[in-house]
Design goal:
Blueprint (H helix, E strand, L loop, with lengths): L1 E7 L7 H19 L4 E7 L4 H9 L6 H11 L3 E9 L2 E2 L1 H8 L10 E8 L7 H12 L3 E2 L4 E4 L6 H21 L35 H5 L1
Parallel strand pairs: 1-2, 1-3, 3-5, 5-6, 5-7
Antiparallel strand pairs: 3-4
Pfam families: FMN_red (PF03358)
GO molecular function: oxidoreductase activity
Organism: Corynebacterium casei UCMA 3821
Length: 218
């Protein structure tokens, strides 16, 4: 079974940001299922971790059990959807706080769909000018198709085109979440077995770089 994490940063409940995340996740689920796999979807709403996020950012020793669980779930996922509302021309502060709390190796090579909601289509470039660079900095594998939904698009032809973009983005993500047996090896050989960079949730002790005390004493 594949695992899909959906991070949303809406402030209201319910929120249009969460609803867009659910739409994309449902499309991904259908696309993965059509490829012969099942998928388990984990929704991570940043607003549920607001207190622990604030505590963790000002005090590295603060206990954040709920946030730690979310980090583990995220790093173990096979695919990721991130959805933020647009405030002041960029992603929301709460959305950024969540990603500021992550280990920089937490979503290495993770197939990711970026999405955003706003009141006006004037903010649509935020996908490529803000969200895509942030995910790329964290070494995520960002899908070519992003999804932007403005309030003014509902019930319009543009709203119908957004549905098409959701389907296309879901198909792209599903292709990376599920192994494709129809790949062509090519002249350079088979690259499907190349080990990707290991992910680290940032929770607990990193034993990979652990140096025994006996060596330190030497």
């Amino acid at each position: 079974m594949r695992s899909l994490a959906v991070i949303t940063a809406g402030l209201s409940s319910p929120s249009s940001t969460r609803q867009l995340g659910e739409k994309i996740a449902a499309s991904v689920e259908g696309a993965v299922t059509s490829r012969g796999e099942s998928v388990e979807i984990h929704f991570i709403e940043a607003r549920d971790y607001a207190e622990e996020l604030a505590a963790g950012l000002v005090n590295m020793a603060a206990e954040t059990p709920l946030l730690d669980d979310a980090k583990k779930t995220l790093s173990a996922a096979d695919g990721l959807i991130v959805v933020t509302p647009i405030f002041q021309g960029s992603y929301s502060g709460l959305f950024k706080m969540f990603f500021d709390s992550l280990d920089t190796e937490s979503i290495n090579d993770m197939p990711t769909v970026i999405a955003a909601t706003a009141g006006s289509a004037r903010h649509s470039m935020v996908l490529d000018f803000a969200l895509r660079p942030l995910m790329t900095f964290l070494h995520a594998m960002v899908m070519p198709t992003g999804v932007f939904q403005a309030t003014e698009d509902f019930g319009t032809p543009e709203g119908a085109r957004i549905e098409q973009r959701i389907q296309r983005a879901a198909g792209e993500l599903a292709n990376f979440m599920v192994s494709n047996p129809d790949h062509v090896e090519g002249l350079a050989g088979d690259f499907t077995n190349i080990e990707s960079r290991k992910r680290k949730s940032g929770v607990g002790i990193d034993t990979d770089n652990f140096v025994p005390m006996s060596q330190l004493l030497q």
